[in-house]
Amino acid sequence: MTCPDCTTAAERDWYGYTSQCKACDARALSRGPDFDRVRRAGKLDARYQRALDQIGLTHKEVRAAFDGDRVNRKDAA
Ligand SMILES: [Zn+2]
């Protein structure tokens, strides 16, 4: 489920991705404008749902990637 890029991203700011790694796909989407928009709105929309479907992910998986991403925890530095 995870790879060295995922492990590193949980520990420090990291922008590496491994192809074929689902958790990397989830992290990439969680850093994009579609996830940012639905997170601010507090609800999913059709465009974001299409992005999920294209990659084959669920919102839960992307949300988990967001929560585990060190980039999003600058306040904890
Ligand atoms: Zn990965």
- Uncertain spans, ≥5 residues at pLDDT below 50? none
- Structure class: mainly alpha
Helix content: 55-70%
Question: DSSP helix count?
Answer: 5
Task: Supply the key terms.
77 residues, globular, binds zinc ion, mainly alpha
What would a concise description of this structure say?
Helices cover 60% and strands 0% of the residues. The chain has helices at 4-11, 22-30, 33-41, 46-55, 59-68. The longest helix is centred in the middle third of the chain and has 10 residues, at 46-55.
What secondary-structure arrangement, pairings included, does this model have?
Blueprint: H1 4-11, H2 22-30, H3 33-41, H4 46-55, H5 59-68
Helix pairs in contact: 2-5
Bound molecules: zinc ion (ZN).
Describe this structure in words.
The chain has 77 residues and is mainly α. It has one domain (4-76). Helices cover 60% and strands 0% of the residues. Zinc ion is lined by residues 2-3, 5-6, 18, 21, 23-24. The site of zinc ion has 8 residues, from helix 1 and helix 2.
